[in-house]
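seq:
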Amino acid sequence: MTRKETSKGYFYTKIEHFDFEKFYTKKMRFSLHFLMWSVFGILLMITYQLAYHLTFFEALMMTVRMTSVNMSVFYIFFYLIFPKFIYLNRFNSIIYLLLSCIFCGFLWLFVTYFFSKLYVLLGIDISSGELKGVISMSAHQPLREAISPKRLLSQAMIIFANLSPFFFFKLLFEIFRVYNKVLKIQKQKASLEIEKINIERDFLKAQLNPHFLFNTLNNLYGLTIKKDDTAPEMILNLSEIMSYTLYESDTDKVQLSKELTFVQNYFELEKMRYPNKENITLELPNYDCSNFMIAPLLTFTFIENAFKYGLKNKKNPFLHLKIELKNNVFLFHLQNDKMIEEISHKAGGIGTENAKKRLQLLYPSMHHLTIHDKETIFEVKLMIDLN
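struct:
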């Protein structure tokens, strides 16, 4: 089980990944209902035989009557009454539910009375024991008395005890079905959000390439004119950056080592534009990180903004980036100078907001981002659990 599944919970994950529509076919629905009533019938028949000492035939007839009564109320309520309930407002739904419960109580009494009349016509009754003559007694009373409010009140607990197990399981099943559907909708929405973020990421890459390429080529041109020995290395760095942004970063996850190589190459090329290179520092892990995967270009917006808006303070320009990996946790700490009179826009820019969305969608409950916009310093701290 992954860390992400653990944070959600075992049952949440199982419900989220359960394909309810594929499982709950017409055949499966019929099978489950048949199983429910069969189990009830068997248990009820055993009860009649062991507790009331009825013969097999008498227990069977009583079981058929009670099961038929419960089935009538159950299906009328859930397939005729309940579907209308969910479309009402709160007040009307409460009134409707109370009236429906009263109606189901009278219906239970009426169907019980009907079966008693039918059994008497067929000559079926209980011949001995505690339930002796119970069917004929029920059938011989007037209909008005059999389904009267007084009768309903006296039989309320019996009706409730008979119907509550079926209503409980049905409601529990419906809650599960609705919850599963809600989770699927949320998952689809999250997928659409990720797709949107990926489109915005691709747009960011499209913006990066011409802008960054133009500045870098200008710097490389200057180096080649001077016949600087670092020109071939810078060209190689540029080639690796272009390869990474165009091809390797199109996947959901990349090796952390490749992402760090991209950051290092980008730093080296950006440093070409600044004379005080000692004020631009980069600290990366000095060991192989290939076993860890991370979303590509996740921190690039912060780094790009640091070079774009930082290094402008004439007294103390600086840009420091430190990336660590401790206990499978990715640690990103970026600081850069900031002009006192500069209007803050980095903490709430489009690129930064997109980065926050990507973090929330890709690493929910697995990351912590803090952005400090101080008077002369802009700071970004990010932690991501890579488990």
